Amino acid sequence: MSTDIPTLTPEQLDTFGEEMDAIRRRILDDLGEKDADYIRSVVKAQRGFETVGRALFYLPPAWPLAVASLSVSKILDNMEIGHNVMHGQYDWMGDPGLNSRMYEWDNVCPSEQWKNSHNYIHHTFTNILGKDRDIGYGILRMDEDQPWHPYYLGNPVYALLLMTFFEWGVALHDLEVENIVAGKRKIEENKALHAGIMRKVKRQALKDYVLFPALTGPLFVPTLVGNATANLVRNIWAFNIIFCGHFPTGVATFSQEECEDESRGHWYYRQLLGSANITGGSLFHLLTGNLSHQIEHHLFPDLPARRYPEIAVEVREICERYGLPYNTGPLGKQLFSVASKICRMALPDRKKKDAPEATSTDDAVTTDRETVAA
Amino acid sequence: MSLATTVLRSKTLAALTSPHGVDRYLELVNPMWAAHEVRARIVEKTVEVDVEGHPRVATLTLQPTSTWRGHRAGQHVQVGVDIDGEGGGRRTTRVFTISSLDSRPGDRFTLTMRANPDAPEGRGVSRYLVEEAQPGTVVHLSQAQGDFVLPDSVPEHIVLISGGSGITPVMSMLRSLQNRTHRGRVTFIHYAQSPEHQIYAGELRDVARTGYGVDLHLLHPELGDPNLSPAWLERLVPGYRDVPTWACGPAPLIEGVRDAYGDSENLHVEYFKPPRTTGGDAGGEVTFARSGRTAPNTGASLLEQAEALGLTPEYGCRMGICFSCVSRKTDGVTRDVVSGDTSTLPDEEIRICVNAPEGDCTVDL
Asked: What is the DSSP letter of A22?
C-alpha cells in the first residue's frame, strides 16, 4: 500500500465487512417509491433543461442561457442519471427506460463499453496498480508506484488535454492504446470496439453538430458552437469531479499481491481507502451525480446514489471506530490536491533518486516498494 | 399510418432524440402519446364474479395507444403496472389473455382476470388490477403475442374446451366467430367450480339461446357433472380426435385433454401454470432454456452451474456488483446468496453470479 494507513486484522476486516453489508441490506429493504419518484423527477428536469436549451438557440441574445441549460442537461444525463442507471442502481424498478442493460447516455462512449471498463474493471479492481486502468487512464502518472519515464514530464499537459476531451478519452479508454504500444494487446482485438464507438460517435455528432444547428437555419454556427461548448463544459466538470474521487493526497493504491484472494471485508476496506469525497450542498451533490460521495459510491455502487448522503453518516462513524481515515474536503481543497499530485508525478520520485542503484531488476523494485510500504 | 405517426417514427426525429428515443420525451408530456412503445388507459372495470371467500374476477376495458397493432383471438399480452404503497416504485409485469374479439390497430380490447391471492405483497398484478386500479390508470403493454389462435379460415366444426379463468382466450375466439358470422358448428365446453363462479354467465346464456350453431356445455364436476373423459367426449362429439380443438385451463384439465386426444394434430393447448413452492434446499433440476441444457441442481450459483455445463454466460465481478451477468429467470425459486432473500417471481432479471436455485429453475441462457 502506498501510504501509512492502519491495517486491520482479518477478524477486524470481517466485522468491518459485516457492518457494511448491514448498511447495504437495510437500504435495499427500504428501496421504493421515494427512490423511483426521485430519479423520475431528475429525468424530467434533465429533459426539460435539454428542450429549453435547444429551443433558446433560436434567440441569439439568449445564447449563454441556451449553453448553460444544455450543459446542465448533459451533466445531469451523464452523472446523476446515466452513470448511476448504468450501475444498475434502478434495475429493481423494472422500468426499461431506467434499466442498466438498456440505458444509453448522451456521451460518445457507448454504454456497453463503459459498463465493462467502469462497472467491472474499475469498480472491482479499484486502485489496484496494473489492474485498475482508471489510475491515470493509461496516459497519466498518478501514483509513486507507477515507474517514472521522461514521457511523464508532460503530465500536466496530458491532464489538461484529457479534461478538454474527456468524453473522447472515456470512449477510447477501452481500446487500451497504451497496452498496444507496450505490445501487450493486438490491434485486431479492437475491431469490434471500433465499430461500436464509431456508431455512437456518428449519432452524437449528427445530433449536436449537424441536425440541431441545421434546424436553427441561419444560426447554424452559433448553435454548433453552443452545442460544442455544452459538451466541453460537461467534459471539464466530469473530469474534475471524477479526479477528485480517487486522486487527492492520502488516497491509497494497492498492489496485486495485497489483493489476491481478498475477503469481502478487505474489498470494502480497499474501496474506502481508495476513494475521496467532496463536501458541498445538495445541489452540488446532484450535479456531481452524487460522486461527491465517491466513498459511499465505491462501497455500494448499486445502491441509488440519492442514498449516499444518509449512508455517509454511518460510514464515517464506522471509520472512526476502526481508526480508518475518511478522506473528504471542499472542492477547492481536493482539486488543489489533485493538481499538485499531477504536477509532482511529472517529475521523478525523490526517494528513488536517493535509493541505491540496484533497482534495475523487478525483484529489487518489489523489495524497494515493500520497504516503503512498511 | 397518420401523418403524426409517420413523423414520430421518422429517422430524423430518432436522430434528434438520440440516444434516448422519441418515446422518452413523449411520455413526459402525455403517457398516451407514443411512437413505438405500447401503453393503455383503463377505461372501464366490470366485476364478473364476486363469490364470498373467493378471489374476485373482473374485466378491464383498455384503450391502447395508437401503437397497438391489434390482436388475433386467443393471443395474450404482457401488462406492466407500477403498484403504489410499501415496496412501491417497482414495475411488475404479468401475462394476461385478451378476452375481447379480434382487434385492429389502436382498437380497445378487454382483459378478464382473477385476483391471484398468492401473489407477494406489492407485486400482485392481477390483485392490483382487480381490486385497486381505477379507470384512468395507465398500464404498460407489449404487442399481442402467442400462436394459440384460430386459423384464418375456420373449419366447419371446432371444439373449445376451457377451465376456470382459462375461458378468456376461447371466449375471445367465440366472440370473434359470432362477429364474423361463422356458419359452422362450435362445441363449447367449460368447467367451473359452481354456477356462481361462472365468468361471462349472462353472455353465455344469450349465446346458448340465440347463438347460431353453438353447442354450449357449462359443467361443474364438484356438483356432480361428469369429468372430462374420452368416453364422455366421444358421446358429445363423435370422432372428436378429428375435430380441430382449442383447450386452455389449469394443468390437470390440460393433462386430461392431452390424454384424451393422444397424438392428434388437431389439438391446440395453452396452460396456465399453477405457482409452485419448494422447501429451502437445493434439489430439482436447472434448465438453461436457450442452450437446451438441463442438469440436477447442485445448489451452486446459477453462473457456476451454467459454466459447469460448458456454457459461457457473460460475467464480470462475480460478486453481485457489476450487473454484467444479469439474465432472465423464467421460472423457479432463486436465493440471493448475499442477502439470503428468496424470490419466486417468474420472468425476473437476476444476477446469476449471486443467485442460486432452490428446486427446479429455468434461466434464459
From this structure: H
